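HUMAN: Ready with one sample?

ASSISTANT:
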Amino acid sequence: MCGKMESLVEGLKDYPQQIVNVKVRSKPPLDSLPEVSRALAEAQSALGENGRIVLRYSGTEQLARVMVEAEHEADVQRLTESLANALRSSIGA
């Protein structure tokens, strides 16, 4: 069993990750916010297959959560900041 598990994770990279919470005044659908949609599309294009982005609202708080995982720390910082700023200017509290 252990050998199978090791073969599953072989070759996987552990990328840097950052999570930022942005206080919001409302929770409209994220794809209805042009600035957020544009920032998300640019971030996804910049990452390609070398990372992931999760953008969602908290279920219990007036927050939007931005999570960026990428191969390079500089990309993580830049893309997280870009998405958080788009959220702040669109619906920030």
